[in-house]
Amino acid sequence: MRTLSYNLEKHKASGELVELAEKLDLDFLCLQEADTLALPDELGPMHLAEATQRNRLGLAIYHRKDRFEAQASQAFALKKSLHDRVARPAAERLLASRMLDTESGREFIVASFHAAPLTALNSLRRAQIAAAHAQIEELGPELPHLMVGDYNYPIFKNSLSNRIAKSGYDLSLSDSLTYTRYKFFRGHFDFATSARLSIDSVTTLPQGASDHMAILVTSKLPESDEQHVIRAARPQPRGRANGWFRSAR
Description:
Elements (H helix, E strand, L loop, with lengths): L1 E6 L9 H7 L4 E7 L7 E2 L2 E6 L6 E7 L3 E9 L5 H6 L6 E8 L4 E9 L7 H18 L5 E6 L6 H10 L3 E3 L17 E6 L2 E7 L10 E6 L22 E4 L3
Parallel strand pairs: 1-2, 8-9
Antiparallel strand pairs: 1-13, 2-5, 3-4, 4-5, 6-7, 6-14, 7-8, 9-11, 10-11, 12-13
């Protein structure tokens, strides 16, 4: 599966999306800092699974429409930073979609994540990451999942990786930095965390209109497992108090 994660920097890079989807033969496209009201339902070969509604600059997930179906989507409000409380840029920092591979009948979860900005402490971002993983598990218990996005965590990633590994997840960085615009804020801001699937590669794409570089994550599901195959009349997950639930478009 080929998943692109891109922080559009206040929607500045939105004009690049169709070309990226077609050129890279994407299966999934996960966006951050998108003007969700301006996003089309279709981007070339991709269909909008869902976008957040309460953010000034929000999250969105697109999927390749000839193979994958979005079964359900949910957005979550995570622990707020001081910046969130004052400027209110993001009420929801996680958007997750439970997907069905129509060829194999297998389910998994794709999620777009945007952590609190650098004005917050790393401890807050770690709490947001842990909460995001827990919410994904609620949406699809024991399903393979991939969460990509802007983690705003350019330093001390070895410590973060160890913490994530202890909780049963993997952290995957790209082959080069994803943010280089300012001398003192360079690093891997954008990366992936995952569970129950394998990451083949994470590649940083050339700089576009955004201050972030997009990353392309190539992953694959584990060998066939009955518990990951969709079953008829499977109950839908219920919405939680700190998020909302609705079926995909």
